[in-house]
Amino acid sequence: MREPSINERMVAHMKRLLVTQGYSPQTRDTYIRWTQRFTKFLGHPHPRQIGTKEIASVLDHLANDRGLSAATRNQATAAIKYLMREVLASDAADSIKNSKGPKYVPTVLSRPCSSGHAFPSGLWSTISRMASRMLA
Predict the structure, then answer these.
(1) Which of 95, 102, 106 is nearest to 63 (CA)?
(2) Architecture of the domain whose range is 6-87
(3) What is the pLDDT of residue 123?
(4) Spatial CA neighbour of 39 closest among 85, 86, 76, 65
(5) Which of 37, 75, 84, 120 lies 20 to 30 Å from 64 when distance is taken between CA atoms?
(6) What is the pLDDT of residue 26?
(7) Tens of pLDDT along 57-95?
């Protein structure tokens, strides 16, 4: 029987920590999968060789090459931060910031709607009369 690799032992240790700290099964599975993807992307280095530069390269890959959403990248970031802080007792991930998604500005009325052409004649005045009666 072969000896487990350092990364396999690290993942097993991470599983134990996640269970003892009361993380939900879904979170545990997600963190484990991201940790495995992280170490695979880096070529399975010794955990002590992982630094801020390696973490940034993985997150850049997720954003630029894979085109993942900000929410998905934040999941990966949380898993990597947990790995570095709790499992490896390293502060290498402390400077990593979460991703911000695109700012959504809702469109209330498009230009054709605001000119009144999209609604039957007199609808705006009816709505406004009804609203004023409700507020009176």
Answers:
(1) 102
(2) Orthogonal Bundle (1.10)
(3) 73
(4) 76
(5) 84
(6) 96
(7) 888 898 888 888 888 989 999 999 999 889 888 887 777
